[in-house]
Amino acid sequence: MPIYEYTCERCGKEFECLVFQSDDRPECPDCNCAKVNRVMSTCGFVSKGSGGEPVKRAAATSGCSSCAASSCAGCGH
Q1: Residue 25 belongs to a domain
Q2: Residue of 6, 5, 8, 17 lying closest to 43 (CA atoms)
Q3: How far apart are CA 50 and CA 36, in angstroms?
Q4: Tens-digit pLDDT profile for residues 40-51
């Protein structure tokens, strides 16, 4: 049972929902609208160096809120 992320077309609320079947369509928890779009989930990771220190983080965990790069390697942060 995967958890998907959705955005409501009416109010713009972003939310997560546990989906039991592939054809289940959730409603927005704020406005109860059934017109929602599933969005691509971001994932985070931390690469560690030989000493166990973090050396790189995923773009989803960076502080670059306006960054358009798909990873931090694209902008160096």
Answers
A1: yes
A2: 5
A3: 44
A4: 776 666 777 777
The answer to whether 73 touches 47, Cβ cutoff 8 Å, is no
**CA–CA separation, 34 vs 43, rounded Å?**
26
Structure tokens at 1: 């049972």
Q: Report yes or no on 48 lying in a domain.
A: yes
Letter string b/e over residues 37-47, b meaning 16 or more CB atoms within 10 A of that residue's CB: eeeeeeeeeee
Q: Containing domain of residue 18, as a range?
A: 1-56
Which residues have CB under 8 Å from 38's CB, separation 6+? 4, 5, 6
Rounded to two decimals, what is the model's pTM?
0.51
